[in-house]
Amino acid sequence: MGYEAWAPALYPFMDIPALLTAIVLAQRAGSNAAARVPLRRLILDSLRGGALSALLLGLALGLLTRPDPVFDSFYDPLFRGLLSLLMLVMGMEAYARLSELRGTAHVYAVYGLLVPLVHGALGFGLGWALHLMAGFSPGGVVLLAVMAASSSDVSGPPTLRLAIPAANSAVYIGTSTSLGTPVALLSIPLWISLAAMLLTP
Amino acid sequence: MTAPAIKLTIIVERLLKPQIEALLADAGLSGWSIFPGGGRGTHGRRRAQAAQLVREFSIIKFEVVLRDRAKAEGIAERLTGELMAEQPGIVWLEEVEIWRIGKFTT
């Protein structure tokens, strides 16, 4: 299933608004819920974080250095190998964090299991609209749904810890890493099947 | 030949490392040591040596040696009042005997 080459680059533009939304909601919830950290500083700290800065620098390198001659022989195998290691570490972290969820309310576990599907459906719906209006590819719609279903496990938790120190980190890290991310990964075949059924002639 | 001094120890999450270093530099200190660590607390278990997705939540320990106890206490007050008011962390002072007292000007 083909997709636009730029579709994965949408991720950083989804990540930062999501974090800002969480912080603004926490600040509106009460004066003690969130630290009074300027939003500009939070955005800059987020962009300077390892995950987002690597992604943006990678985009810049791809645009400026034209790595096409070495893409198949170097970058593609390296990406697949490192991705498998990342999945391994995420699995180990997810298992370790599962025990932290036991001490929290069950509603967070239900949220972690259901909301990736809800967000993924919203992303799929938006992608479907773009498919009809602008010819967005079915593969691009699937990627948008998967990204919408996903949660920020690397850049999000440190930003939220600084911005909302009163929040119980065991809840949002445990829910995201142990439940949300596995559900988002397991939902990939769902979005692919939906795209094949609804978007391809 | 040893001389008395004060060792300031700070245990925090790596998340606060830039802010603590800025505070120590602002207090006029020119050097400190940082060690990785692990343990268990109200915020859960910290694994000293394990592959982790987010390094910022791992534990680090700062150790700073000062000659001036009042200055050490002032730094500790600033740490607990400014940085640790809402973030986890532990600070303590110890009396130590050090060699090469000339290396410690503060």
Topology:
The complex is a heterodimer of chains A (201) and B (106).
Chain A: H1 11-29, H2 39-48, H3 50-65, H4 68-101, H5 106-134, H6 138-149, H7 156-163, H8 169-186, H9 188-198
Helix pairs in contact in A: 1-7, 4-8, 5-6, 5-8, 6-9
Chain B: E1 3-13, H1 17-26, E2 33-37, E3 39-41, E4 44-46, E5 59-66, H2 69-83, E6 89-98
Antiparallel strand pairs in B: 1-5, 1-6, 2-5, 3-4
Helix pairs in contact in B: 1-2
Write a structural description.
The complex is a heterodimer of chains A (201) and B (106). Chain A has 201 residues and is mainly α. Chain A has one domain. Chain A has helices spanning 11-29, 39-48, 50-65, 68-101, 106-134, 138-149, 156-163, 169-186, 188-198. In chain A, helix 1 packs parallel to helix 7 (156-163), helix 5 (106-134) runs antiparallel to helix 6 (138-149) and helix 5 (106-134) crosses helix 8. Chain A is globular, with a radius of gyration of 18 Å. The model of chain B has no long low-confidence stretch (mean pLDDT 88). In chain B, the strands form two sheets. In chain B, strands 2-5-1-6 form a four-stranded antiparallel β-sheet, with helices on one face. Chain B has a single domain, classed as Alpha-Beta Plaits, CATH 3.30.70. Chain B is globular and about 45 Å long. Chain B has two helices and six strands, in the order E-H-E-E-E-E-H-E. The two termini of chain B are 19 Å apart. Chain B is α+β, with helices and mostly antiparallel strands and 106 residues long. Chain B has helices at 17-26, 69-83, and strands spanning 3-13, 33-37, 39-41, 44-46, 59-66, 89-98. At the A-B interface, helix 4, helix 7 and helix 8 of A face loops of B.
